[in-house]
Design a protein that fits this description.
The chain is of the alpha/beta class. The chain is about 40% helix and about 20% strand. The protein folds into 3 domains: about 210 residues, Rossmann fold (3-Layer(aba) Sandwich), CATH 3.40.50; about 160 residues, 2-Layer Sandwich (Ribosomal Protein S5, domain 2); about 210 residues, no CATH class. It has 20 helices and 24 strands. The strands form 6 sheets. A 6-stranded parallel β-sheet has the order 5-4-3-6-7-8, with helices on both faces. A 5-stranded mixed β-sheet has the order 16-17-18-20-19, with helices on one face.
Length: about 600
C-alpha cells in the first residue's frame, strides 16, 4: 500500500501512530536554539548540537537531567522544564514536509508522545492538526518510551491490534517502544536519529530521510543531464548506469531505503520506452567485473546465478556504503516487476564486488535498451561541446610534476616533487564516504618513493570510496608518468624497480614501464581464492575498505601506464598487509625513477610506453 505517494506500508496496516516531536513538528530545530538560550539564562555553558539531538527523544525533565549531568538538581530541572515548555508553546513550529499529506490520506491517526497530553493538544491545535486520539506520558499506568506502553495504548485507542498499526518515529528510543509493542516501525530522519542510525537499527523496518514526494523520470536525450538523489550514493550510481545505457536523461528524487519499491518505481518509469522486441541480451563489464544478462517480457523477477562465482558469497559482500548486496538484489527484482520483464543474470567475474555490480547494472541497461525501438533511434538533438575530463599537465620539470585529472565524478590535482619532501592531502567527499585514511597510506607511499606530494581530491557529483581511491591512484600515476618522461630526457631512468632490494618483507612489489598496463596480486604460498578473500571485504582500523585500496593500485597502474605486480605471502591482517603494499610500491617507484645515464633519451621499455 502506497500512502499519499510518499509512504509504502504493508497491506495489513489499518492505522498510523505518529510521534510528535521531530516527526510531525520540527521541534528539534527550535530545541537547538532554545536549550542554549535557557542554559545561558541560568549561567551555564552552552552544549554542542549533538548533545541536544542525542537527548531530544526523552521526556523533557529526563532530557535536562542528561544534558546537565552533575550540575542537575530537582529545582533547576523543574524550572528549565517549565521554561522550555513555555518557549515551545509560544514560538511557531513548522510541520515537517509531507506529514499533512499522510495525516489526510484516509487512515485513522493517533499521536503518541513522551509529552504530557495537554502539551500535545496545544501544539497540535496550533498546527491545526486533529488526530483521532492522543497518548501522552501522563496517562495513568503508561510508562514512557522505550517501554511499549504508549504504542500499545495508541493502537488500543484506534481499536487496532498493534500488528495492524504503523508507528512513525524519529528516535531509536521511540523505535524500540514501537517494536516492543509489535508495530510496523517507520523511521524518519527529521529528528533525533540520523538516517544511517535508523537504517542500521533492528527496530526499524524502513527508514526515510523525510516524507517528500518521490519522483523518477527517464527521458530519451543527453545522458549528461542527470539529477539523482537516493539515500545511498552507490544505489544512485547503479541507476545512473541504467540511464546511461538506455541513452536517457534522468531525474530521481528518492528518500527511503525501501529498495524493492525504488526498483519497481524505476521499472514503471522505464516501461513505456520498451516498445520493441520481446527479448534481449547483453554482456556487461567494467574493469575486472563482468556479467551476462538476458531479459524477456513477463515474469517480473530477477535471477542471479554464478559461473565460477559463489553467488551467496558475492551478495553477502559489502558494496561501498551498503552492508551487503541484498538491497541491489531487491532493486533488480523491483525493476524487473515494474518494467514487466524478467532478468536472467549470470555473474562471471568477481575481483571487486562494486565492479561486478556495476557490470550487472550496465548489462541490465544495455539489455533493456534492446527491448526498445524508441531508444534504438531516439529523436533527440544533443548540444555538442568540448569533451569533458582528461589529464592536464600544470607544471613539469625533471624534479617535479603537477597534473590535474577531471572526470564526470571528480577533480584531482597531484603535485609530486623530488626536491621537497613536504606532504599534504585533502580528500573531499560526502559524509557517508570514509576515505580520509587513504592520506595515511599515500604518505607511506610518498615517503618510500622519496617524493614530496600535494594531493587535492574533490567529488563533484556522486561520492564513492572506490572512485576516490582509484582517481587519486590514477592521478598520482599520471603525474609519475610525466615526471618519468621528463627525467628520461634529462638524465635517463631505470624504468623499472622493486622492493626486493632491501629488508626482506612478506609482501614485495614490482613496477615496470617495460610492458603494458597490468596489475596482478600474486599469492605466494597460498591460493588465489584465499588471497582474494583477504583483499575483498576487509576493513582497516582507519575505516578504509581493502577492495578500494585494490582500486588505488589499479588506478595507479592505469595513470602511469605501467605494470604492477604484488607478491603476497600469507599476510591477512589488512593494516599490516596494505601498509606493506604501499611501502613496497613507493620503494619500487624510487628505484624506477633513479637516474641511469646509459638510458638517457631512449624509450623506457620494449613497448615504448613513454615514447
Amino acid at each position: 500500500m502506497i500512502l499519499a505517494s510518499r509512504l509504502s506500508l504493508p497491506d495489513g496496516v489499518k492505522g498510523l501512530l505518529f510521534d510528535l516531536d521531530g516527526v510531525i513538528l520540527d521541534t528539534l530545530s527550535l530545541e537547538y536554539d532554545v536549550v542554549n538560550e535557557l542554559l545561558a539564562r541560568h549561567g551555564i555553558d552552552p552544549v554542542e548540537r549533538e548533545v541536544v539531538r542525542a537527548n531530544f527523544p526523552y521526556p523533557i525533565p529526563e532530557s535536562w537531567r542528561r544534558i546537565l549531568g552533575d550540575r542537575a538538581d530537582d529545582e533547576l530541572i523543574a524550572q528549565l522544564t517549565e521554561e522550555l515548555e513555555r518557549e515551545r508553546s509560544e514560538r511557531p513550529l513548522a510541520v515537517h514536509d509531507g506529514v499533512l499529506e499522510l495525516l489526510g490520506a484516509g487512515l485513522p491517526v493517533a499521536v503518541v508522545s513522551n509529552n504530557p497530553a495537554a502539551h500535545i493538544e496545544a501544539m497540535l491545535r496550533d498546527a491545526q492538526i486533529e488526530p483521532a486520539a492522543i497518548v501522552g506520558n501522563d496517562a495513568e499506568g503508561i510508562r514512557s518510551k522505550p517501554a511499549p506502553d504508549p504504542y500499545l495504548a495508541g493502537a488500543r485507542a484506534l481499536g487496532l491490534d498493534p500488528s495492524a498499526a504503523a508507528a512513525i518515529e524519529d528516535s531509536l528510543l521511540g523505535a524500540r517502544s514501537a517494536r516492543e509493542a509489535g508495530c510496523h516501525v517507520v523511521g524518519v530522519a527529521t529528528g533525533a536519529a540520523t538516517f544511517d542510525e535508523l537504517t542500521a537499527s533492528a527496530d526499524v523496518d524502513v527508514a526515510y530521510e523525510r516524507f517528500a514526494e518521490p519522483g523518477i523520470a527517464f527521458t530519451p536525450g543527453d545522458v549528461r543531464r542527470k539529477d539523482l538523489h537516493t539515500p545511498n550514493e552507490f544505489v544512485s550510481h547503479m541507476l545512473e548506469h541504467i540511464a546511461w545505457r538506455l541513452g536517457c536523461e534522468v531525474r530521481i528524487g528518492w528518500h527511503c531505503d525501501d529498495w524493492l519499491w525504488l526498483g519497481r518505481a524505476t521499472g514503471e518509469a522505464i516501461a513505456p520506452l520498451l516498445d520493441g522486441p520481446d527479448s534481449s541480451q547483453a554482456l556487461g563489464m567494467i574493469d575486472d567485473g563482468s556479467a551476462e544478462v538476458r531479459v524477456t517480457r513477463g515474469g517480473g523477477t530477477a535471477t542471479l546465478t554464478g559461473a565460477g562465482v559463489d553467488i551467496g558469497w558475492f551478495t553477502s559482500l559489502r558494496v561501498e556504503q551498503l552492508a551487503d548486496g541484498r538491497p541491489l538484489v531487491q532493486m533488480l527484482n523491483g525493476l524487473a516487476h515494474g518494467a514487466g520483464t524478467s532478468f536472467d543474470i549470470t555473474v562471471t567475474s568477481l575481483e571487486d564486488p562494486h565492479h561486478t555490480w556495476e557490470a550487472i547494472w550496465r548489462g541490465v541497461g544495455v539489455a533493456l535498451r534492446g527491448l526498445s525501438s524508441t531508444l534504438e533511434k531516439p529523436d533527440v538533438e544533443i548540444e555538442l561541446g568540448a569533451p569533458a575530463g582528461g589529464v592536464a599537465t600544470l607544471d613539469l620539470n625533471p624534479d617535479g610534476a603537477h597534473v590535474r585529472r577531471t572526470t564526470a565524478e571528480s577533480v584531482c590535482e597531484v603535485a609530486l616533487s623530488l626536491a621537497d619532501d613536504a606532504f599534504e592531502c585533502r580528500i573531499e567527499t560526502s559524509d557517508s564516504v570514509n576515505s580520509q585514511g587513504l592520506a595515511q597510506l599515500t604518505e607511506v607511499f610518498a615517503k618510500h618513493a622519496g617524493l614530496g606530494a600535494r594531493i587535492d581530491f574533490a567529488a563533484t557529483r556522486l561520492s564513492s570510496s572506490h572512485v576516490a581511491a582509484e582517481d587519486i591512484g590514477n592521478t598520482i600515476g599520471a603525474a609519475l608518468r610525466q615526471l618519468a618522461s621528463e627525467r628520461m630526457a634529462a638524465t635517463g631512468i631505470e624504468g623499472a624497480g622493486s622492493s626486493l632490494n632491501g629488508t626482506p618483507a612478506p609482501i614485495r612489489v614490482g613496477v615496470s614501464f617495460e610492458g603494458r598496463k597490468f596489475v596482478r596480486f600474486q599469492p605466494v604460498g597460498w591460493s588465489q581464492d584465499e588471497l582474494r578473500r583477504a583483499i575483498i571485504g576487509q576493513t582497516l582500523s582507519n575505516g578504509l575498505f581493502s577492495e578500494d585500496l585494490d582500486d588505488f593500485v589499479d588506478g595507479f597502474a592505469g595513470g602511469m601506464g605501467c605494470s604492477v605486480i604484488v607478491h603476497w605471502e600469507r599476510v591477512t591482517d589488512p593494516d599490516e598487509a596494505w601498509r606493506l603494499v604501499f611501502a613496497g610500491l613507493g620503494t619500487a617507484v624510487k628505484q624506477l625513477l633513479a637516474a641511469n645515464r646509459s638510458r638517457r633519451g631512449v624509450i623506457a621499455g620494449v613497448k615504448g610506453t613513454l615514447a
